[in-house]
């Protein structure tokens, strides 16, 4: 009886991020048992020269927008599962996205590794971020094999040693690293030696709360000047882009704002026209 009661309490206090990373460990173990790193290294995509998101975001006429393909989220449920990843990502690229973000987490975000494959084939020269919860070096090899140019490391679910080791391994494989933080504590404890981009997630991943860019504004001057900074989530108005640019942000990761529309690419084009 005590065990059952304790388990129920445990489920109540677990954050969404805890649940995601717990499930991710199960997924990674299953993937390792099925496909070896040697097999991943034999992928056609593994041998390709990657595209630089840093270069794209730094270009003089860059929109700075990293447009995301996202079917659903833990907080919003289904956002849009009626459009193909090829049409969405091509539409984004044509509209002027500086980069693409493709979710590959299945259980919580409805993503698939095939989504990344399809986006890569449809957009050979556009930088693509594998958006997932990276908890194991194996996933970095997956990202390269699936066609990604950039990996996401989330400070909230990694130790400083993991951040350093994972980001170095990504560089060894020719991938760029986007480190996601939410507050000053996460920034302070994160080694940035091999980090290319720091992203401030305006939404707290522990509870998926908040609906503003206050976190980005608060951390703007705290991020080292030699590292490109981007703002993530809670961006729905063109005016917000201009505000964030004024405090030094070069990139803006946006998904839901565009994915809620029947034609995300057209929505992005309209958004860019207002910046």
Automatic annotation (TrEMBL):
Ordered alphabetically, the record's keywords are: Amino-acid biosynthesis, Aromatic amino acid biosynthesis, Decarboxylase, Lyase, Tryptophan biosynthesis
Q: Which domain of life is it from?
A: Bacteria
GO MF annotation list:
indole-3-glycerol-phosphate synthase activity
Please list the residue ranges annotated as the Indole-3-glycerol phosphate synthase domain: 17-269
The EC designation for this entry is 4.1.1.48
| InterPro entries xref list | Aldolase_TIM, Indole-3-glycerol_P_synth, Indole-3-glycerol_P_synth_dom, RibuloseP-bd_barrel
Q: What Gene3D superfamilies does the record tag this protein with? A: Aldolase class I (3.20.20.70)
Reactions catalysed:
1-(2-carboxyphenylamino)-1-deoxy-D-ribulose 5-phosphate + H(+) = (1S,2R)-1-C-(indol-3-yl)glycerol 3-phosphate + CO2 + H2O
Pathway it works in = Amino-acid biosynthesis; L-tryptophan biosynthesis; L-tryptophan from chorismate: step 4/5
The molecule here is called indole-3-glycerol-phosphate synthase
In which organism is this protein found? Emticicia aquatica
